[in-house]
Amino acid sequence: MTVQHAGAVAPSQSLAVRAFDSSRLEAFCATAEFDRPTLVLDVDRVEAQYHALKAGLGHADIHYAVKANPHPAILGRLVRLGAHFDAASRGEIEMCLAQGAQPHQISYGNTIKRVVDIAWAHQAGITLFAADAEEELEKIAEHAPGAQVYIRVIVEVSMADWPLTRKFGCDRDTALRLLDTAKALGLDPVGFSFHVGSQTRKAEMWRPTLDAVGQLWADAKAAGHELTMLNIGGGFPAFYGEEIQAPTDYAAGVMAMVTERFGHVPRVMAEPGRGLVAEAGMIVAEVVLTSKKSDRDLHRWVYLSIGRFSGLAETEGEAIRYQFVTPHDGEATGPCIVAGPSCDSADVLYEKRPMQLPLALKAGDRVLIRNTGAYTSTYSSVCFNGFPPLEAVAI
Ligand SMILES: Cc1ncc(COP(=O)(O)O)c(C=O)c1O
């Protein structure tokens, strides 16, 4: 198998880290035998990326967004590195605790929580909760009395490849009112959170969001609120083929803009998910079928052993374009529609913008899918069409 390294990678320090670690992963994946699609994780690569991000983030704490990949080897390594965690559910909190994280290192960042889970988290020692609605604050006040809360605000302008607008956050006026509500309910409103949208490729793209939240921060202080915490969320990018800014430059760029607008904030939280783990993972899959629908068909169809429901959910809207490594790289290519193996017509990965893949590709060929450490194993369905969930192994 010809194993090629990423071509147009971002400059500076990330290049060295990426080249070293992707070669180790690719070498392993090129020969390892698996009887089903498998995500292979290089946890050393996660550690390298943690240090690279931390070098730019300065005094900000990294709260790893566990939803990106809760593999015990990743959580365990991050605990040893002193990371903090952003958990979306009781299940994620339990996974962090099981790896040795302390409750004070875990924030419960989902703005939509069941009361039984709030009560459970409170008794487990979790003290920091997110909210974006009055009713959520009432639930927290009743089941985690006196807890610290931060208010998540809407991001109006997202330049992300995978935006997280609409569903989360509240507008400026609501955010200010919720600070008052939290206080009245006996909670401790410490600050705000936002998310610029996942896969925001350059630090500069954060500017409109930081401007808006900076103004809100100033308004809240003018209204008498003593804010001590700013949660800047995730958005840190991974390499999928389009140029991204290197992690330390990126994080330092974001923090410089934060300082310009907010001054010194005692507690800054950053919640990278994708940016921390995506490049540490590679999926080993195979071609199940290649075909043409007619003699006139300009495209080949390439059906893989993995699809939208078995780990590649982020191909929705063709938002994330993964890079494939095949045994025929370097040979003649043609436009291919890439699809998954299930009996569901939505299980088509790339059709609007077909992929250029080797024409020699055929059933049984191994396909490696680069930089798939984030939002793959966690998105895979349990047994849709009888296909097992994506297996994940750490090397
Ligand atoms: C609250 C919160 N924080 C952090 C993240 C991680 O985002 P990313 O993977 O873009 O770093 C997410 C992702 O959905 C999120 O919902």
TrEMBL record:
Gene Ontology molecular function: ornithine decarboxylase activity
Keywords from the named record: Lyase, Pyridoxal phosphate
Domain Orn/DAP/Arg decarboxylase 2 N-terminal: 44-278
The protein's name: ornithine decarboxylase
SUPFAM superfamilies for this protein: Alanine racemase C-terminal domain-like, PLP-binding barrel
Native organism: Rubellimicrobium roseum
Cofactors named for this entry: pyridoxal 5'-phosphate
Active-site positions on this chain: C343 (proton donor)
Alphabetized Gene3D superfamilies for the sequence: Alanine racemase (3.20.20.10), Lyase, Ornithine Decarboxylase, Chain A, domain 1 (2.40.37.10)
Family recorded in the similarity comment: Belongs to the Orn/Lys/Arg decarboxylase class-II family.
EC number: 4.1.1.17
Keyword Lyase: yes
Reaction catalysis annotation: L-ornithine + H(+) = putrescine + CO2
Pfam families named among the record's database cross-references: Orn_Arg_deC_N
Alphabetical list of InterPro entries matching this protein: Ala_racemase/Decarboxylase_C, De-COase2_CS, De-COase2_N, De-COase2_pyr-phos_BS, Orn/DAP/Arg_de-COase, Orn_de-COase, PLP-binding_barrel
Modified residues (N6-(pyridoxal phosphate)lysine): K67
This protein's pathway: Amine and polyamine biosynthesis; putrescine biosynthesis via L-ornithine pathway; putrescine from L-ornithine: step 1/1
GO biological process, alphabetically ordered: putrescine biosynthetic process from arginine, via ornithine
GO cellular component: cytoplasm
